[in-house]
Every structure is written in C-alpha cells, then in structure tokens.
Design goal:
Layout (H helix, E strand, L loop, with lengths): L8 H6 L1 E6 L15 E6 L4 E5 L5 H19 L10 H5 L1 E2 L2 E2 L8 H14 L4 H8 L3 H10 L1 H13 L7
Antiparallel strand pairs: 1-2, 2-3, 4-5
Helix pairs in contact: 2-4, 4-5, 5-6, 6-7
C-alpha cells in the first residue's frame, strides 16, 4: 500500500475536505478581506494543514496540500518496501541525496525515509544503508524538515538512544 504522502496529488485530494476561511494578522488593507485562507483535512487520517499567507486562494490551496503531504509523511507510518522506490533511487547517487523541500516529490521522499527508519527501529545507520545514502546525508535530509528530525529524536529517546542534532 502506498503512503498517502506518496500518492499523486489528484488521488490524495479525493480523500480530502477543503475549507476556505479568513485569517487575521499583519498586512493591513490587503490582508484576507475575502476567504483566501485554505484548510485541508485528509479525512481517513484526520491530519490537517492550512495556508493563509498569500492573497490568492489557489496559491494557498497548493501550499496547504504540500504542507498536508509533509505532515502525513511525518505522522503516518507504513511498512517500508524491501527495495527503495524508483523515485528514491532517482534522487540518490554516490551516497548523496539531492532533494529540495519545496519540490513536489519532497513529501514522498520524506515518507519513504521515515518508514525505513521506523522499520529499522530508529537505527539511522541501518536505515541509511538500506536507503543507499550516508548517515550524515540522512540526518541532513531530516533537518530540512525540523518536525521530521524532532519526531525521529523523540522515538530514539523513548528507546534510550541518543538524539541527533
């Protein structure tokens, strides 16, 4: 079964509910006079995300979907596959991982990495070996999304392991 963060956006949004709203904050006369803020909820899991920093509802919708995919990647675990996905393989070379946090594929990569880490009981060295990257590259990747590293560190602390910085 594919992780929800790895689904194509069209498939993911089929399981989501969207709500438009207004948000307050700085910006004066140009700030959310109409309902441009977007809240998206993945109904099967109850995971929610929102975006309200743009004046365009469509830009906020896209940002909310990306944030939802990142939250799903961090909060949900699926059994890791025995082999790395072609998507993962396309971004790794020579023990290095090349991914930008703003890229559409980032949540899918994050989900795959976190699933592998969880399956290997939060042993980052073993997970890095499975994923074909160095341990330092894996930690660097997790640092791109601080909530992901915090999640891994919390699980490591619960197991009596030292956290990563």
């Amino acid at each position: 079964m594919a992780h929800p963060a790895q689904l194509p956006v069209k498939e993911l949004v089929a399981d989501c509910e969207f709500r438009r709203t207004r948000r307050s904050g700085p910006g004066g006369q140009h700030r959310n006079k109409v309902e441009t803020a977007v809240v998206v909820e993945h109904v099967p899991t109850g995971v929610r995300a929102e975006a309200n920093e743009r004046r365009s509802q469509e830009q906020n919708r896209q940002a909310a979907i990306h944030r939802l995919r990142v939250k799903l990647a961090i909060e949900l675990r699926c059994p890791a596959e025995a082999t790395n996905s072609p998507l993962w393989e396309s971004r790794t070379a020579g023990g290095k991982l090349s991914v930008n946090a703003e890229h559409d594929e980032f949540p899918a990569h994050l989900a795959e990495a976190l699933d592998a880490i969880a399956q290997l009981d939060f042993d980052l060295a073993a997970a890095a070996t499975k994923l074909g990257v160095s341990s330092s590259q894996l930690v660097k990747f997790l640092k791109i999304e601080p909530a992901a590293l915090a999640s891994v560190n919390l699980a490591r602390l619960e197991r009596g392991l030292s956290p990563y910085r």
